[in-house]
Design a protein that fits this description.
single chain; 4-stranded antiparallel β-sheet; two-stranded antiparallel sheet; about 15% helix
């Protein structure tokens, strides 16, 4: 089981939680963990903090690539 902080938490939304806990097995990619939360929902985590949410694995990996190498095109 994994838990990580959700800095995007908004108490005005019922489904939003300050800490996310999941049984999903993460994929490690360039110092980040990528969790498949639902069919088209991937959380990107670094250092126990959610840093992004993406609709697919390619989007999640592309986000990590741009964090690691900011000179890459968007």
């Amino acid at each position: 089981m994994h838990s990580y902080t959700n800095p995007f938490h908004n108490s005005n939304y019922q489904g939003s939680k300050p800490v996310i806990t999941t049984d999903a097995k993460p994929a490690e990619y360039r110092g980040h963990l990528i969790f498949k939360m639902h069919d088209q929902h991937y959380d990107v985590v670094q250092g126990g903090i959610l840093v992004g949410q993406y609709a697919g694995p390619n989007g999640a990996r592309g986000f990590v690539d741009r964090r690691v190498e900011p000179s890459l095109p968007m």
